[in-house]
């Protein structure tokens, strides 16, 4: 069995690792070059994501994920614009972290991605364009420049703007919520530590205004190695941003982010202005509409390629769970389409349940 995976983010490489452990051939195709840095910084991995990594990764790579994860905080807090705590939820550390229930992790996305790609067959600079279902039941993936690859199954792990989803499921809709965001990171120097609210150094915090603006802040302090930093996001209704914000250079984006919260506690805009310009990016919050199950073919989808959701700290774990589930179904011995159908049925159920939960939490 040969599996073609489009997208070398997180879920695609994890699926390839699991298949490789099971002796199944898998090749990952990525449109970006190998030297292009991945966007994204500190992310939360819920227990189902950690369990998927435990199942799919060789023990030494899983151990590296744990070793490079962030020091745990005590929970999450909501602050007002003057940095006063208005809500908190403390999370005791599990004594049985290695047990069957999995564990919560915070990880640096770029570090995790590097670990997940270790030892895989990855073809960089391969921009997927279209697929063709072949008469023999296999599938051909076609790439820019005329290259192609044939396999038994094509897996879309190519994110919110998935070209595979657009071809396979033209009825699928991804909706803009009207929320825009600028995000980046600031290295955790003594100066920055003095500026940050204590809550940002002890877990995750959200500064929430009464006008739709918000600012998540969370320090990532590596257990071992790595340069500690604080991840920040400024977000709110699109109308509150400069209309041309998406076209600004990164220095100007950083200043726009600082100006966005300039009437809040002065430490917040100061932390943003100390951020690394090259780390600053613009994005919009999107959500997917639920789908009925389609007729199964040798093409399937994982993660944001099928159930894009508003960021609420769970999307990465759900995508990793997809990878773990698909790997398990493909290696249980069932016929290929039967295995894919079983995966899709279960994935659509929990995936869109999480989409609905994220929408409710954001509301």
From TrEMBL:
Entries under Pfam families matching the protein: FAD_binding_3 (PF01494)
Residue stretches making up the FAD-binding domain: 150-346
SUPFAM superfamilies listed in its UniProt record: FAD/NAD(P)-binding domain
Domain of life: Bacteria
GO MF entry, a single one: monooxygenase activity
InterPro entries, per the entry: FAD-bd (IPR002938), FAD/NAD-bd_sf (IPR036188)
Chain coiled-coil ranges: none
Keywords, alphabetical: FAD, Flavoprotein, Monooxygenase, Oxidoreductase
Protein name: FAD-binding domain-containing protein
Biological classification of the source: Bacteria, Bacillati, Actinomycetota, Actinomycetes, Micromonosporales
């Amino acid at each position: 069995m040969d599996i073609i995976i489009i997208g070398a983010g997180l879920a695609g490489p994890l699926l390839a690792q699991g298949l490789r452990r099971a002796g199944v051939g898998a090749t990952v195709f990525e449109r970006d070059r190998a030297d292009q840095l991945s966007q994204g910084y500190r992310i939360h991995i819920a227990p189902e994501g950690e369990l998927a990594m435990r199942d799919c990764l060789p023990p030494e790579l899983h151990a590296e994920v744990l070793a490079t994860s962030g020091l745990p905080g005590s929970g999450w807090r909501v602050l007002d614009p003057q940095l006063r705590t208005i809500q908190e939820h403390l999370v005791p550390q599990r004594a049985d972290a290695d047990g069957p229930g999995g564990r919560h992790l915070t990880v640096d996305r770029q570090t995790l991605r590097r670990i997940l790609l270790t030892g895989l067959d990855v073809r960089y600079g391969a921009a997927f364009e279209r697929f063709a279902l072949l008469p023999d039941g296999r599938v051909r993936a076609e790439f820019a420049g005329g290259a192609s690859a044939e396999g038994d199954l094509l897996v879309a792990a190519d994110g919110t703007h998935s070209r595979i989803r657009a071809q396979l499921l033209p009825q699928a809709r991804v909706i803009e919520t009207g929320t825009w965001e600028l995000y980046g990171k600031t290295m955790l120097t003594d100066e920055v530590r003095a500026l940050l609210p204590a809550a940002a150094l002890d877990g995750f915090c959200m500064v929430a205004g009464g006008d739709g603006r918000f600012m998540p802040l969370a320090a990532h302090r590596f257990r071992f190695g790595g340069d500690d930093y604080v991840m920040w996001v400024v977000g709110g209704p699109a109308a509150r941003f400069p209309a041309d914000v998406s076209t600004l250079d990164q220095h100007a984006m950083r200043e726009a982010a600082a100006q966005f919260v300039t009437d809040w506690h002065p430490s917040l805009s100061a932390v943003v202005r100390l951020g690394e310009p090259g780390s600053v990016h613009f994005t919009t919050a999107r959500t997917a509409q639920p789908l009925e199950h389609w007729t199964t073919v040798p093409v399937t989808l994982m993660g944001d390629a099928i159930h894009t959701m508003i960021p609420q700290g769970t999307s990465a774990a759900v995508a990793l769970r997809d990878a773990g589930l698909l790997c398990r179904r493909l290696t249980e011995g069932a016929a290929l389409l039967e295995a894919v159908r079983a995966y899709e049925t279960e994935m659509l159920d929990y995936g869109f349940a999480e989409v609905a939960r994220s929408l409710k939490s954001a509301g």
